Amino acid sequence: MGVMKINPFYFVVQISFDVISSFIIFFLLSSVSPSYGYDPLDPHGNITIKWDLLQSNPGSNDVKVSILNFQLYRHIEQPGWKMGWDWTGDEVIWAMQGAEATEQGNCSRFKGGQLPHCCEKSPFIVDLLPGAPYNMQTTNCCKGGILSSMIQDPSKFGAVFQMSTSAATNESGFHMPENFTIGVPGYTCAKPVQVAPSKYSSDGGRRWTQALGTWNVTCMYSQFLASTSPKCCVSLSAFYNSTIVPCPKCSCSCQGLPGAKCVKFGETPSLLRQIKDLNRESPSFVRCSQHMCPIRVHWHVKQSYTHYWRVKITVNNLNILKNYSQWNLVALHPNLKSLIQVFSFNYEPLNQYGQINDTGMFWGIEYYNDMLLQEGESGNVQTEMLLLKDPDMFTFREGWGFPRRILFNGDECVMPPPDQYPRLPNTAQLGAQLSFSTILFLLWLLILCAE
Ligand SMILES: *[C@@H]1O[C@H](CO)[C@@H](O)[C@H](O)[C@H]1NC(C)=O
Ligand SMILES: *[C@@H]1O[C@H](CO)[C@@H](O)[C@H](O)[C@H]1NC(C)=O
Ligand SMILES: *[C@@H]1O[C@H](CO)[C@@H](O)[C@H](O)[C@H]1NC(C)=O
Ligand SMILES: *[C@@H]1O[C@H](CO)[C@@H](O)[C@H](O)[C@H]1NC(C)=O
Ligand SMILES: *[C@@H]1O[C@H](CO)[C@@H](O)[C@H](O)[C@H]1NC(C)=O
Ligand SMILES: *[C@@H]1O[C@H](CO)[C@@H](O)[C@H](O)[C@H]1NC(C)=O
Ligand SMILES: *[C@@H]1O[C@H](CO)[C@@H](O)[C@H](O)[C@H]1NC(C)=O
Ligand SMILES: *[C@@H]1O[C@H](CO)[C@@H](O)[C@H](O)[C@H]1NC(C)=O
């Protein structure tokens, strides 16, 4: 048994450490598949519809409806929310302020005089556009349906409208409608729940009045419901390796698949000439690429200093016909807890677990780069950031310098597989390549020795 002299235990310990750490990395990366409702980065995130019954007279009710985006980083972008519900009886909406129903519907049972605003059994309500006539506004209305996230702009996360409705003909009092929707892909709303009535003060808190009844409807997001295919992918590079790791092929779709439309360089789609429907999102057209994603995020490990290192992030818009206003990017990297400086983007940590602040949100600076323009020369936004080399964890080995997750506008981006990350020249990759065969060999040796 001369083999024993090489002391296999040392190697087993060394190599299994490598294997275990790559398993941990793999586990981290694979356990973050699209969220199915629960989002660890924003565990309490929801959109709440608050329904306040302000007055209830025989035959008529006054209602104030608020839609509030309680999500840290997801926002509602154009074409905005479109709230719907089902009346339980034959209620109609006589008048509305701060929003409007998309259809008036069949009001023929009302003869003479002024007709109701909406007689639909299942009305759909949309926000007014900014600059709506003053007499149609309410405070906090008229944002064209766009709601900011809590972090990005806490002053614009909600919208309010008021309406007067008739009661159902053979009912007295008020009946809460059912089956709420907000008309944004990916959101499902729960049943209305009666909660403690909202209180209002018109004199700064000396006297409070309260709603006759308040109901909450909670709506939750699921990326899987929004779209079964991703909308964004990540490419990687580093100063220490000339390889640029592209987005994985077919990240979002594959060229040539039925239904996968893309526009070759130099072409413009014929749809440009068609009329736009204001309440509906225009179909998206992307530039042809091997990943077919409308958004590509590139993470470049740019430079290493004695105590710091520098990362450059570039977001490319590959949509031909879509600008992203108020875009945001969420990144997860352990070194974000020692972030020193972010250039030309806003940054806010998403500090969900107290000490562990390895996740942060980036967004554009107003009037400078808060609009990510459609594909073309200026269809990108970029930032650089400076991070402190945390002595207890920093390394360029094993792809540590690359992000663990990236989300664009709240949707998970597809990352390249970890074994393709740009590597440090020599040494680093040797261990990983050897590990499996070596460990098997050594295990076999150990079994032999034990016998
Ligand atoms: C919705 O978000 C608000 C604000 O974070 C929170 O108070 C409320 O409990 C949440 N609702 C649900 C059902 O999670
Ligand atoms: C709500 O939706 C359910 C399922 O689609 C339907 O059966 C029910 O009638 C709806 N409620 C009202 C008041 O229309
Ligand atoms: C109104 O009366 C009709 C007939 O009695 C009944 O079927 C219907 O459910 C009533 N409407 C409501 C909202 O209760
Ligand atoms: C409109 O509603 C009335 C009753 O309210 C009904 O008789 C009529 O058929 C409806 N018209 C259409 C086009 O549905
Ligand atoms: C109902 O919604 C309001 C926000 O509109 C929130 O402050 C309140 O906590 C909610 N109540 C419940 C019980 O979820
Ligand atoms: C995007 O913004 C640019 C510059 O403001 C504008 O020229 C272009 O028409 C916009 N595209 C769309 C699809 O709105
Ligand atoms: C991360 O959290 C630590 C401790 O809570 C804090 O000292 C540090 O400033 C935070 N870093 C960032 C970039 O937010
Ligand atoms: C750069 O990284 C790639 C991908 O991991 C690897 O195949 C290549 O060997 C690396 N180049 C050098 C010079 O180490």
Unreliably modeled segments: 1-36, 428-436
Share of helix among residues? 10-25%
Average pLDDT figure: 84
Radius of gyration: 28 Å
Secondary structure tally: strands: 28
* Approximate strand percentage: 25-35%
Distance between the termini: 12 Å
Q: Tell me, briefly, the overall form.
A: elongated
Question: Can you list the ligands bound to this structure?
Answer: 2-acetamido-2-deoxy-beta-D-glucopyranose
Instruction: Label the structural class.
Output: mainly beta
CATH fold node name of the largest domain: Immunoglobulin-like
How many separate domains make up the residues?
2
Secondary structure tally, helices: 3
**In CATH's first tier, which class of the largest domain applies?**
Mainly Beta
Profile the largest sheet: 7 strands, antiparallel
CATH architecture of the largest domain: Sandwich
Transmembrane segments: 9-29
GO biological process, one term: plant-type cell wall cellulose biosynthetic process
Subcellular location: Cell membrane
Family: Belongs to the COBRA family.
Description:
The chain has helices spanning 8-30, 223-226, 428-450, and strands at 47-57, 60-69, 82-86, 93-97, 99-101, 124-127, 158-166, 178-181, 187-189, 193-195, 199-200, 209-210, 213-221, 232-238, 241-245, 262-263, 286-287, 295-304, 308-317, 324-325, 328-332, 339-343, 346-349, 359-363, 371-372, 380-388, 405-408, 411-412. The protein is mainly beta. The chain has two domains: 47-107 and 115-224, Immunoglobulin-like (Sandwich); 230-272 and 281-420, Immunoglobulin-like (Sandwich). The strands form seven sheets. Strands 1, 2, 4, 7, 9, 10 and 13 form a seven-stranded antiparallel beta sheet that branches. It has a six-stranded mixed beta sheet with strand order 15-14-18-19-26-22, with no helix packed on it. Strands 23-24-21-27-28 form a five-stranded antiparallel beta sheet, with no helix packed on it. Helix 1 packs across helix 3 (428-450). The longest helix has 23 residues, at 8-30. The model is unreliable at 1-36 and 428-436 (pLDDT under 50).
